[in-house]
Write a structure and sequence with these properties.
The complex is a heterodimer of chains A (431) and B (307).
Chain A (H helix, E strand, L loop, with lengths): L1 H33 L11 E7 L8 H12 L3 E7 L2 H13 L6 E5 H9 L7 H4 L10 H5 L12 E7 L1 E5 H6 L8 H10 L8 E3 L8 H10 L16 H15 L13 H9 L3 E6 L4 H8 L3 E5 L10 E10 L6 H11 L2 H7 L7 E2 L2 H4 L2 H4 L2 H9 L3 E2 L7 H17 L5 H14 L2
Parallel strand pairs in A: 1-2, 1-3, 6-7, 9-11
Antiparallel strand pairs in A: 3-9, 4-9, 4-10, 5-7, 5-8
Chain B lengths: L2 H46 L2 E2 L8 E2 L3 H7 L2 H32 L6 H7 L2 H4 L2 H11 L6 H8 L13 H28 L4 H9 L4 H30 L2 H6 L11 H10 L4 H28 L6
Antiparallel strand pairs in B: 1-2
Helix pairs in contact in B: 2-13, 3-8, 3-10, 3-12, 8-10, 9-10, 10-13, 12-13
The chains are: A alpha/beta (431), B mainly alpha (307).
Chain lengths: 431, 307
């Protein structure tokens, strides 16, 4: 019996030691993951975890700005984490659901409704009221960070885009055409510039990932709206169905877009436009520097063609910054994100390869932005640009519903009405 | 029974008891880790599938079988399930056939064999994202090498936007995965072939067997257990693999290349419906478990697992 007991005790010691080591490893791992959020009590430096994506990851402009901020703000240490845009929303959702959300994050207007509905974002009104640049940002930009006209502000505007039309001056000159101003001119030009035998097409349609912005820009320019002035979802009304059918027909009936349009995404569009396979491409200022570098004087920029030029519209989209409600360092986080939207940082960001439109009017009025066609057209369009409505269902529509239904509509598997009914149902289901 | 024998028997029993107890103690740390790393997520996923749950918070509501009913009556899930079956068995079948051919070729003696054996592993070692980007441009409608080659060969009528047509999108994705997976089969089967005793092969040749007869009657039965286990592993991996689909087609055009894991992914992260997504995952896991059980039963019946 004694022998058995001795053996049992020895084995128990081995097992307990193993479990202790295991627990220590787990505790250390958990501790490591949270250590970034801790305040270093000894020198009172507050650590702010900040997540962001970049349109051009080859140049980490945001990290440059973070370094500059850290140097000039000794009491705050910002730790940046670059996440590819394709995984960004998913990573943020995972972080929130597991209680590891960052203090502050770069954000799209698409997601404001989804996150604000679940009380995950900090209302910023108490900060913005005292911020020196509040009046330098247009009221409609502030609205992109709200869920309704009376809701608090959840997102601080930082960079804006408006959709316009790029065209190849060489191809237009060869066909003796002028850039289109109306939908009719757009279709007519596109037809004249299309010659499938030569792999030549009028328009680069984006049916694949991310194509919802281009589609929405054409829907708005055609006179359709996603919600009316009372906030009712009208994306499937008669007008919208008609404009959507016109857009689908560019591919199905008039064949002015390449056969691969159904799944083409940004990389394919860019390659087609740069190589002259397509003559027109709807995009925003984000691709301007690259296209100008590749095409030089052959690059033309005009506002989005309109169905009714007397009542113009295009799509705008805001990228801003939010403070997560779970943050323990909200004031420090505000100091950082408000600095990112100050003239110092905006000026650096919007002259880089990650440039979009400056949200501060004082910066937008600088000669650099006013004297350049690409910037000038985009800034002029700001007056009539509409953003995606701040509905919780927008996340699902932009995530996969639009792409799946658009593909089906382009392939003739569902009608324009059925496509928009599905989008409307998704928008309503999130409410 | 004399006292000495009784003491001896008691001693043996004690040793057995101690040995059994010791085994349990030694297995316990591994058991705890398995329970934490595998058991807990599985249990949580199964539980989640009975709730309406958004990862962004809000209420967690018990909905019973509602998620399962909704998933199983959804046209989209039906299409995804069919594509999953085509994807899994199609990919694994082609990988096995070409992997076997590759293993036979690599088992021959030729100059530079070592280098070739290393090079064939490149597709397997290529990260999925890189492979996806590479093949996206090879199969590109306007600038793809494949369409260009077909045009130069006078087969322009065969050139098409491979990822943009419903009937070619899934086969094009399968082609990429077959390309990536062949080396795994080739290397596994090659390793099995190298265990075949030379004298068996020599004896069959002396008996006048043809190369095919030698392969089929002597070599193949010896490598069969490896073939079956490797195939089983690949079925499980391939059924859950969705990287290529997410990067290249996002399940499109329409639902043409949507599989169950991709459908679950979009349901979870776009629709924020974790209950529905986990229900899909549980259904796939149950079906896969069924396939694995039947497969193992067959292997066991033939005594392959005992070898």
């Amino acid at each position: 019996m004694f022998h058995f007991w001795k053996s049992f005790r020895r084995q128990t010691r081995v097992v307990i030691s193993s479990l202790t080591v295991l627990m220590m490893i787990l505790v250390t791992a958990c501790g490591t993951s949270n250590s970034g959020s801790n305040t270093t009590a000894t020198n009172q430096v507050q650590t702010v975890n900040y997540w962001y994506w970049l349109d051009d990851p080859s140049h980490n402009t945001i990290q440059d700005l973070i370094d500059q901020f850290n140097m000039t703000h000794p009491n705050i240490h910002v730790v940046g984490r670059l996440i590819p845009f394709n995984n960004y929303q998913q990573t943020l959702i995972n972080a929130v659901s597991s209680g590891n959300a960052p203090d502050a994050a770069r954000f799209k207007d698409w997601w404001v409704g989804q996150f604000a509905q679940n009380h995950l974002l900090t209302p910023l009104d108490s900060y913005t009221k005292q911020w020196q640049y509040t009046s330098d940002i247009l009221p409609q930009y502030w609205d992109t960070g709200r869920t309704s006209s009376s809701s608090p502000i959840y997102m601080l505007p930082n960079e804006y885009i408006t959709f316009y039309l790029y065209y190849r001056k060489d191809l237009f000159a060869k066909a003796h055409l002028t850039p289109p101003k109306t939908f009719d001119e757009f279709l007519s030009d596109a037809q004249k510039l299309t010659d499938p035998a030569k792999h030549q097409y009028g328009f680069a349609m984006r049916g694949g990932a991310g194509g919802q912005d281009q589609w929405y820009a054409f829907m708005l320019a055609g006179g359709a709206r996603m919600v009316d002035s009372n906030g009712n979802i009208v994306v499937n009304n008669q007008k919208a169905v008609q404009v959507n059918q016109w857009y689908i027909d560019l591919f199905r009936k008039y064949h002015v877009a390449p056969p691969s349009s159904v799944t083409d995404s940004y990389a394919q569009l860019l390659a087609d436009f740069e190589n002259g396979t397509v003559a027109m491409m709807a995009h925003h200022i984000g691709s301007y520097a690259l296209l100008q570098q590749k095409l030089g004087d052959n690059l033309g920029v005009v506002p989005m063609p309109q169905a009714d030029p007397s009542n113009p519209a295009t799509m705008g989209s805001m990228s801003g910054n939010v403070i997560m409600d779970s943050s323990q360092h909200k004031t420090a986080a505000w100091t950082f994100i408000s600095w990112l939207s100050s003239p110092t940082a905006i000026d650096v960001l919007d002259r880089s390869t990650n440039a979009q439109l400056p949200v501060l009017q004082s910066v937008a009025n600088e000669p650099f932005f006013q004297s350049n066609t690409g910037w000038k057209v985009a800034i002029e369009e700001e007056k009539y640009a509409h953003v995606w409505p701040p509905l919780p269902g927008v996340g699902a529509v932009s995530g996969h519903v639009w792409e799946q239904t658009m593909d089906q509509a382009l392939l003739g598997q569902i009608s324009s009405q059925q496509m928009l009914d599905q989008i409307a149902a998704t928008l309503k289901s999130g409410q | 029974m004399d006292t000495v024998t009784q003491v001896a028997i008691a001693d043996v029993k004690r040793r057995h008891r101690e040995s059994g107890l010791r085994s349990i103690w030694y297995l316990l740390p591994a058991g705890v880790i398995v329970a934490l790393v595998i058991g807990y997520p599985v249990l949580r996923a199964v539980m989640l599938s009975f709730f309406r749950f958004s990862p962004l918070g809000g209420s967690v509501t018990f909905v019973g079988m509602h998620n399962y009913v909704q998933v199983l009556t959804s046209r989209q899930f039906g299409a995804a399930a069919l594509h999953s079956v085509i994807w899994t068995f199609g990919v694994v079948a082609f990988q096995f056939v070409f992997g076997l051919i590759g293993a036979v070729l690599l088992n021959q003696k030729f100059r530079g064999r070592g280098i070739v054996r290393g090079l064939v592993l490149i597709p397997w070692a290529t990260p999925s994202v890189l492979a996806a980007m590479m093949w996206m441009w090879i199969l590109d409608a306007n600038y793809g090498v494949l369409n260009d080659l077909l045009t130069r060969l006078g087969l322009a009528f065969l050139a098409r936007p491979w990822f943009s047509q419903p009937h070619t999108a899934l086969p094009a994705l399968m082609l990429i995965d077959v390309w990536q997976g062949i080396p795994f089969f080739a290397v596994m089967l090659l390793a099995a072939m190298q265990t075949i005793p030379d004298d068996l092969v020599e004896a069959s040749k002396l008996d006048g067997a043809t190369a095919w007869k030698t392969f089929w009657s002597v070599k193949f039965p010896i490598i069969l257990p490896t073939c079956l286990i490797t195939t089983l592993l690949r079925i499980v991996w391939t059924a859950s693999y969705m990287d290529l689909i997410l990067i290249i087609t996002q399940g499109g055009p329409g639902y043409a290349s949507l599989t169950i894991p991709a459908d679950a992914y979009y349901t979870a992260y776009s629709d924020l419906n974790f209950g529905g997504a986990t229900a899909m995952a549980v259904i796939q896991a149950i079906v896969l478990l069924g396939v694995v059980m039947v497969y193992l039963k067959l292997l066991s019946k033939q005594g392959i697992l005992d070898k």
